[in-house]
Amino acid sequence: MKLEVEGLTVYFPYESIYPEQVEYMRELKRALDAGGHALLEMPTGTGKTAALLSLIVSYSIHKSFKFKLLYCTRTVHEMEKTLAELRLLASHLPTPTSLLALGLSSRKNLCVNPHVLSAQSRDSVDAACRRLTASWVRSLAHDNPQVPTCPFFESYDRAASAGPDTLLLPPGVYTLGDLRSFGRSKGWCPYFLARQMIRYANVVVYSYQYLLDPKVATIISKEMQKECVVVFDEAHNIDNVCIEALSVSIRKQTLEGATRNLTQMSQEIERLKATDAGRLRAEYNRLVDGLAQRGNLAITDAWLGNPALPDDILKEAVPGNIRRAEHFLSVLRRLVQYLKSRLLTEKVETENPVNFCAAINSQAGIDQKMLKFCYDRLHSLMLTLEITNTDEFMHIQTVCDFATLVSTYARGFSIIIEPYDERMPTIPDPVLQLSCHDASLAIKPVFDRFQSVIITSGTLSPIDLYPRLLNFSPVISRSFTMSLTRDCICPMVLTRGSDQLPVSTKFDMRSDPGVVRNYGRLLLEMVAAVPDGIVCFFVSYSYMDGIVNSWNEMGILQDVMQHKLVFIETQDVVETTLALDNYRKACDCGRGAVFFSVARGKVAEGIDFDRHYGRLVIMFGVPFQYTLSRILLARLEYLRETFQIKEGDFLTFDALRQAAQCVGRVIRSKADYGMMIFADKRYSRHDKRSKLPGWILSHLHDAHLNLSTDMALHIAREFLRRMAQPYDKTGCGSKKTLLSEEDVMKMSEGAMDTY
Amino acid sequence: MYGAGVAFQPTSSARGSSKEKKRRDEDEEEEEDDNEGKGTDAWERAYADERSWEDLQEDESGLLRPIDTKTLVHAQYRKRLLLRSSTGGSVASRIQKGLIRYLYIVIDLSRAASETDYRPSRMAVVAKQAEAFIREFFDQNPLSHVGLVTMKDGLAHRLTEIGGSPEAQIKALMGKLECCGEASLQNALELVHGYLSQIPSYGHREVLILSSALTTCDPGDAMETVQRCKRAKIRCSVIGLSAEVFICKHLCEETGGTYTVALNESHFKELLLEHAPPPPAIAEYAAANLIKMGFPQRGAEGVVSICSCHKEAKVGGGYTCPRCKVRVCELPTECRTCGLTLVSSPHLARSYHHLFPVAPFDEVSPHGRPGQRLPTTCFGCQQSFVGQGGAQPSLRTSCPKCNQFFCIDCDIYIHESLHNCPGCESQRNSSV
């Protein structure tokens, strides 16, 4: 259908539209018109992606494709879903438009060369690719046909060199799978084809890292022009992604690996000195001339970029004392040695970067400027030495990243050395962490460079905190609610067990056997009353282990298993995937199942428990972060000093967004229904509850705020019976929730009249 | 409230059936019980009349008032009637219906059936309603057969063979009421599938599952069994007592049945009775074929003969098969000796109305359109539309064919029991 949104013709791929989608589009259009950033919260299951894509693509058609859409997703799965939605949209666009949209992912997901694909990890796939396609390998192969190269890349390169701007990919929407099959049929390398084509594409769907992590962003997204609209979907954790992009952690293994790398490199240098001294001299001369980076790198040679943000990189010549390869290596050796000595500490140390640099200077004789150039110098050296197995050199790379970051940023970072894990003080596991506290650092270039940045998710409440955390000023920030034909979500706050004693995962109460038993009774009552799938979220792995163990001893688990099978998430990805698979099977065949999972775990973030896979989700406790963690404490302090955000506020915000994220897994569309139980007395307090997203709060009746187990059970039974009745999807009268083309027209006319 | 309802009921001569009288008697008995209940002490009474607050509702101005059960019932009835006629297509396009049904009722006697959210327990409610359903079913489908299967301890067990006698079925059911263990949907379906695949092709194979349990404990893949039922053209319907279960929904969608979940006991009864009228025939079966039937004569009084069903000598009554002259006790049945289907002509006639239902009546506003004079009395029962003492005029409807007006009680009677419109019938007579 086509509809008008404030004078803009929007092509929408479905026959009818939800009213909140129209609202969403209107706000989005205003943000685009104003050329500013926007923060939009809309519950999942209301067709956020469809609304977003159709408005921006229509807007872009309206402006005759002057700007590009960069759509960032968190996972490959979401990327594929977005592209599928886009394909549907493309088939509804007016015929003469030539939309080119594609997804970009790592080589591991795009490569079609069977030799390369046999490698396991992402890094080793990258290295295997580089071994076949690096410029020196190719020039070697030019002389000696025995040297293996990648046939896909070679034929792609021939096609690309025919004319630099020939459009290699016909217009259309390409998912990763499409790119692979297109590459196979043409014999072209899909990865480099995609890398090339994102310059010409109208819509690019890729991962957050490609914009936020400076190491990757400098390579991939450098050439994006200002007139881009950037969308971060499912962006409730964007501050954590930003922080991770600028954080480095070094363990004992890293340093040992780095030492090995250094030995290998020095051997390589010796060999090169004997065979081809000219190459080393050429590098030296280039560095004297002040070019840290070789210009015009071949697309295949580009490795990870500088870890610091582009604006913060020094535009200077490399200092004289690290220009010679041997000298640089000895500097690195001293640095690694120094870091090793720091790791030997017995107690936890926290330091700021300035002090740390000063200590390096006095103890290892490496000044700040040398540290800053570590990354660039290493990169140059690796190219000179023509190293292709980059995966083995990750360790020294990490050390150099660390050096460059620690010397570049004086504020917003801290260095924390922990000799052991807090929870297991008997096992020595020293780790040195450079942790970034300021989420606004990594995202700042994105806000500065691009015209409009849209941050959207199902849970962005409280919406006023994000601009403060990310340090930007949105032109539009709004939270939408869901229009429903029936009350298909039923949130409840359970504060008491069946014996009327309060339940909570507060530190002093969580190991109380009464609380454990009450939680167990709650689960037991619910498994008997709720059909198919139930998902339970616990606050941490250790708490889950503890409580499941106690339930087992009390015999509660055995009773639960009479009604439903029990599956548990573990830290092992393969095991968890298997458990999920069997969980789904048990829900399908009517046996019923319970899934025990952890807030902040993999399941809580990425797996949907829609329809019968999740009729009820129980959130046991409030998922606060581990508040004794040094990193968290340092970050809280920084937030308080810099952004005036109180510790308590931030912790509550973070816990509640996790809780909302967990319970939001259960409802994925309007036709779906599900119950949510927040089982902790602290949820009934206003300061906690008010931080839940609006679409949950609007269904949280006062009568459901302070329940005990038996009352919750009664409500659950009633709710399930009511939801099982047949209903009318379109709604009726004034509560219309599915609009046809005419309805939208009428609505906009009505809006005109009121102005 | 009940007292008010009686005044509007059609005269007992119009209804006349002994069953109706009996039911009314029961009502009165209950009322007496209630009166007795009021004499007991307050703490005892609390349990006799539980949840009295549920009979209250809030009106627009926030006042509490008792729920107007009568209008509610009428509204529900109208909705159901319209729904039925709309799903079954318009009256003019006569759809085929399966009149000869072979129905297995699967009763869930697993642990979940002992729960007490229905009073006194789910099991007792199911049994009670199943009894009523079986009677109603044979009343509406005299040519059909019913069998009972129970699920308990993870097994499915056939309680009664498929047959045409309501009494035998009910007796068997009442004798076996105890519950334990798990329910197994797959086992029940496999069992029923085994029996139903033997019946002749003109019969419609149906399963009605009354499920209390929310889980099914199966030995294999239930999905495969669902597909087998689909291939065998068995129409499976499920009525759940507590919540929607995916596998049941899947089963019903695949096999063309209906899946409903009861809100409370009266809703359960309603849902159950919806299965009494024959469903539309499955398209593949719609090919008309001829069935050989015998119309046995009733045996003379005082004649002693050995009946083939009980293998014992009986005096008087019974029927004689027209082909092999063997004696059977009741109709409809299949002759034990020669396999002929034995029915009586009233049975056929009673099934007939399903094919030509009375068109749903149009609702008429109590005040009528301007310029139109409405009759003041119901064409059926001759009672005045205007209630006694200037009470609010009750709902009235008119037949679209003969344009006669009827009160809502006659409307219900015409559509549910009589299956003929008195207005249309009398017109035909006068024209002849």
What does this structure look like?
Chain B: It comes from Rhynchospora pubera. Chain B: InterPro entries: C1-like_sf (IPR046349), Ssl1-like (IPR007198), TFIIH_C1-like_dom (IPR004595), TFIIH_SSL1/p44 (IPR012170), VWF_A (IPR002035), vWFA_dom_sf (IPR036465), Znf_C2H2_type (IPR013087), Znf_RING/FYVE/PHD (IPR013083). Chain B: Its main location: nucleus. The complex is a heterodimer of chains A (755) and B (432). The longest helix of chain A has 24 residues. Chain A has 32 helices and 21 strands. Chain A has 755 residues and is α/β, with parallel strands linked by helices. By secondary structure, chain B is an alpha/beta fold. Chain B has a six-stranded mixed β-sheet with strand order 5-4-3-6-7-8, with helices on both faces. Chain B has a three-stranded mixed β-sheet with strand order 9-16-15, with no helix packed on it. A three-stranded antiparallel β-sheet of chain B has the order 10-13-14, with no helix packed on it. The interface between A and B is medium-sized, with 24 and 23 residues.
The major pleated sheet of chain B works out as: 6 strands, mixed
- Biggest sheet of chain A, open or closed, and with what strands and sense? 8 strands, parallel
Number of helices of chain B: 14
Beta-strand residue fraction of chain A:
5-15%
Approximate shape of chain B:
globular
- Total of helices of chain A: 32
Radius of gyration of chain B from the CA trace?
24 Å
- Structural category of chain A is alpha/beta
User: What would the average pLDDT of chain A be, to the nearest integer?
Assistant: 85
The quaternary state of the protein chains shown equals: heterodimer
